[in-house]
Amino acid sequence: MPATRASVLLFLAALATPAQAQGDRAAEAQALDMAKRAIAFRSVAGPGNQMPQLADYVRSVLVAGGIPAADIAVTPMDDTAYLVARWRGSDPKAKPLVISGHLDVVEARPSDWQRDPFTPVVENGYLYGRGATDMKLDAAIATAALLKMKRDGYRPRRDIVLAFSGDEETRMKTSAAIAEQLKNAELVLNIDGGGGRYAEDGKPQFFTWNGAEKTYADFELAVTNPGGHSSAPRPDNAIVQLSRAVERIGAYRFTPQVSDLTRTFFTEAAKQQTGELAAAMRAFAADPKDEQAVAVLAANPAYVGQIGTTCVPTMVSGGHALNALPQRATANVNCRIFPGVKPAAVMAELKRVGNEPAVAFRDVTEGSVPNDASPMRRDFVAAVTRALAKTRPGVPVFPSMSAGASDSMWFRYHNVPSYGASPTFIKEADDFSHGLNERTPVDNIAPGIAYYTSLFTDLSR
């Protein structure tokens, strides 16, 4: 055995807990190697995007693992590509189980990082590099788990489809295409959502799975005027009119909302907190109209997105010359809309709040569609709870809602239940997704493979 491979296996063995000691060392080594190779591909939107090459690499790994090449498609789209691979089950009439994720990443400038973001490094128990958290390591762990299952002789009853999009971080055109292609799925496991929290001492605190996400929307506010010379001011100044509307919208808070899923989240999350925050979570779960509870949660960046629709001005532009009255002024208001609420209703509410007749509102959203929460299916909840119990015994498991957007949106739009189900645990202080010096503990690899093996097996029978 080459020295480098031996050192990787010894490193992973040292990290394994007793509950993980039965893990497959070959699968663990493959997952780490695959994650490192994936990080080295600069799969960033724009010139030089290496997403097509990365998809080809993943295809080669799957073929080497026994998935027929004829059942793997890499489809180019604009400057990117997406991959769909099918492990055929014994019952061709059964709807497939889809494992969904993405392989593109947010831009990272090497000059800003302590290490080159596209040169993977394992140091002090962490894998460093763009995509280490979001989400190349998870993709590698899930792929290695599937290939381990195949190597061990497992045969699913329903097809297992592995689908990696190539522009989830930007336009989501590949995400939409995949969901359209797989809209007959039984359910989707989105490995780009959910996950566990390590306490600052490194002990697992809790685990959540995502059963819903908020709808992304952008609304343009625009005022147009004839303009004129700045030496002759008029009351109907486009910038002033727009500013008044933007200020009112910025100060506005939508009526708080709760669903069965978010009520369960706050009830269970309260058990992980203390003091005022825990009390506010319990009070809000009992009564979303509790003003004191709403005030506490709204002031907390981690929870303000969980209590209802939020809208915030994100861009402004106005005027055409230093010495002229503005002919046009525009602003963008970005909203994250509570599941089940229609974007048109939110835009109408913003128009009422803005209260400026001269301001025209327009929905300019791209790459997003409305979606409702997925049902809390008993088979999924039981399977994810069982998988976590095997790998992180005693860790509380409960549902959550994502305030951001993911590929799940497109499946839910087609009424396919989709659940964020990543097994990765990370400290709050270590979460640098989309930020500088992204890193994830490599001690997630062994339990992650065991977790995915259990989950994929249970839901593909």
The secondary-structure class comes to alpha/beta
Main sheet specs = 6 strands, mixed
Give the strand line-up of the largest sheet: 1-2-6-3-7-17
The proportion of residues in beta strands is 15-25%
Please tell me the CATH architecture of the largest domain by its name: 3-Layer(aba) Sandwich
Number of helices: 13
> What helical percentage do the residues reach?
25-40%
Question: Residue-averaged pLDDT, rounded?
Answer: 94
Total beta strand runs: 19
- The fold-level CATH name of the largest domain is Aminopeptidase
The rounded distance between the terminal residues' Cα atoms is: 36 Å
Give the CATH class of the largest domain.
Alpha Beta
What would you call the shape? Answer: globular
List low-pLDDT spans: 1-23
Instruction: Give the full name of the CATH homologous superfamily of the largest domain.
Output: Zn peptidases
Q: Could you tell me the radius of gyration in angstroms?
A: 24 Å
